[in-house]
Amino acid sequence: MSAAPITVRVAALGIAIHAINHVLVLVFSPFSWNVGTVFHLIHAPLYAALVWPVLLGRNWARILITFFLGGQFLGRFVVWVMFPSAGAHLALLGGWALSIVVLTLLWAPGSSRRYF
């Protein structure tokens, strides 16, 4: 097995940051149990578990994280409407940007496509 290209390593770091963000949202949430709490409880370990398979070049992991990030990307629109504060919107914009970077790094560069 060859070492993962830099594009895949940076994407894996982005996936790990998403996993950590899921935990931070739980820790700092001003709300009690709700749908978002369950979402973050489930997705934090799922994202974390996908970092290593992505680094190993497992295409199923790339497809699965794409599915998760796509769903989360769309879900952020709901959160945008439900939480109109500037802080929430700033966090959502950061999440959208990180998701776009991760997905682009996993699918666009030739080195990433060849690795998977």
Automatic annotation (TrEMBL):
Keyword Transmembrane: yes
Keyword Transmembrane helix: yes
Keywords for the protein's UniProt record, in alphabetical order: Membrane, Transmembrane, Transmembrane helix
Chain ranges passing through the membrane: 12-31, 37-56, 63-83, 89-108
The name this protein goes by in its record: Uncharacterized protein
The organism of origin for this protein: Nocardia colli
